[in-house]
Amino acid sequence: MSMDMTTVGDTGLLDTLQHEVAVFARRAEQTRLGGVGQVRNSMDRAAYLLLNRLDNEGPMGVKALAASMGIDSSTVTRQVAPLVEAGLVKRTSHPEDGRAVVLQLSPRGTHRLAEVRTSRRQLMAELTQDWTAGEREEFCALLTRFNTALSARMTPPAQPPAVS
Q1: Is 95 exposed, middle or buried (0-12, 13-18, 19+ CB in 10 A)?
Q2: Which of 45, 48, 110, 154 has its CA 20 to 30 A from that of 71?
Q3: How many helices (H) and strands (E) does the chain have?
């Protein structure tokens, strides 16, 4: 669906929004949102998202992990390799199909993820220390809504089944 952005609202506001999103993305990547001055608690974005997914959803195969994250299986395989090498993720055989590989957090991965989460939580607290609880909730709700809209835009529409 094509939309003339001038009908959405003030183009100046939209210019400011796109600029602030770009600045946020750059700063988030520069700091890797590693926490409060703790370089050791920084973590690559892809690693953080993969470890979080495995922690939240439990052990799963590469295809399931890729599907749940909306990325390609080859990308997951490439991103998981250094996590396995670092001892943060374990590869095990599927209990029902020994040929299939299941990925799961290792105890070291669980500990490392907890360290990074704690550091990031502290950073969020510091960055929003002069915000009210309502402002934090509103920002979180709006950012979630923004990310959901962005994700929906990136997800290709479902193709209707072929008629034979």
Answers
A1: exposed
A2: 110
A3: 6, 3
- Residues 40-51 as b/e (b if ≥16 CB within 10 A, e otherwise) read ebbbeebbbebb
The rounded distance, in Å, linking the Cα atoms of 33 and 39 is: 10
Give the integer Cα–Cα distance in Å for 92 and 77. 14
Give the pLDDT means over successive 10-residue stretches in the chain (164 positions): 53 91 85 58 85 94 90 92 95 76 94 90 91 97 93 71 61
Predicted structure pTM score: 0.76
Angle at 115 between CA 111 and CA 125, to 5 degrees: 150
